[in-house]
Amino acid sequence: ETARRQRELLAGQVAIPKTYDADHVRAIHRHLFQDVYAWAGEFRSVNISKGAGRGFGDVKTGEVDQLLDDVRKRVAGTDWGRLDRDTFAERAATVFAYLNQAHPFREGNGRTGKVFMEHVAERSRFTLDFGQ
What we know:
The protein has a single domain (2-121), classed as Fic-like fold (Orthogonal Bundle). It has helices spanning 2-10, 22-33, 61-76, 85-102, 109-121. By secondary structure, the protein is mostly helical. The protein has 5 helices and no strands. Helix content is 52%, strand content 0%.
């Protein structure tokens, strides 16, 4: 079901405002997981920690909004249409890293992040391939 909903989002069949902020992230998660989690689209209310070596450590709930504001600023502050391939890859990786670090939901952060990054890539002349 989430795969179908992801295809809907990427095909533009579902209109969500592409504001590249916390509301945008919530809207993606809500659409993807509306039939899976009662809390779809709601940021987690508990701190989480992922094991050492996974790329991020303790993520406090109070840090989520700041990290997502950093994401918004980085997306807004980049002229995506003018970037060459290497610069696009660098900037996109940085945005994705901030979004991943925020880890705003208890579950579904990866799929939500991929859709978000596809939306970012739409502002450029490049596409992303998460199948590689």
